[in-house]
Amino acid sequence: MNRLPTVIVPIHNALEALDACLAALDRTLPAGSEVLLADDASSDPRINPMARSWCYRSPLKARYVRRELNMGFPANCNAAFAETGDDDVVLLNSDTIPTAGWLQQLARCAASDERIATITPWSNNAEICSFPRFCEPNPAPGHPDAIAEAAAALPPQYPELPTAVGFCMFVRRAALRQLGGFDAATFGLGYGEENDFCLRAAAMGWRNVLCDAAYVVHQGGASFGPLDIAPNGDNLARLLARWPDYNERVARFIMADPLRPLRARLQEKMEELARSGPQRDLFG
């Protein structure tokens, strides 16, 4: 396999969630994997020393960059894109817990088709990519690596999505070069920028897909909660002004639910693996 993507972790406060995410990166990534911590001027003074200490201790090739002023999520990501050279990247929210093999699975998915611009894995809390219940914030599972093991044991399908889900989002560098990153001028502090990017990508012939061989836990809302930024507010209006059929596209996808058979086979594989090994409640 070619070089793994660089993992970008955008940071704004949320110390406890970040600590858990970084520990999971140490546990799940091969030594020497590249990680950029992009701190958007966190107000919590504990973030800087904790992040720097982790970079020093980690077996990963990790860097920490702190913005002088809060830029907002889209602009922080755009700066991080520029700071990662020519690499493909994965934007990984700080309130996630990656599982074994997750980055390798995303890289395999990307290698399957050079027209893939974005990739999203399964998660407990990922809207259209949620498992086991579709479009619901499922509780974090007790044994997430068991779900990842089951997902990786199945032949991947890499089905089309109307949009990536930003909690964990592979982005191909060639797509970034063509499309120009996120629209920070329009989407400000954040929400909607990844949807806009994916719609622009699709309009240019790129694909947005699910990596049904990977699973990442998502807590949800840890970074934006303290800022009291409500999703689906002004930024949704801006998104719809540019893409008037966005809601219809997503609604049609939800009504058709093309991922239903993939969720069913993943559930069946989990039950099969549970029967063949120690009995455990995979969602407890």
TrEMBL record:
Annotated Glycosyltransferase 2-like domain ranges read 6-179
Q: Has the keyword Transferase been applied to this entry?
A: yes
Pfam entry (one):
Glycos_transf_2
Q: Does the keyword Methyltransferase apply?
A: no
One Gene Ontology MF term:
glycosyltransferase activity
Protein family according to the UniProt entry? Belongs to the glycosyltransferase 2 family.
Record key words, sorted: Glycosyltransferase, Transferase
Name of this chain's protein = Glycosyltransferase 2-like domain-containing protein
What top-level branch of life does the organism fall under?
Answer: Bacteria
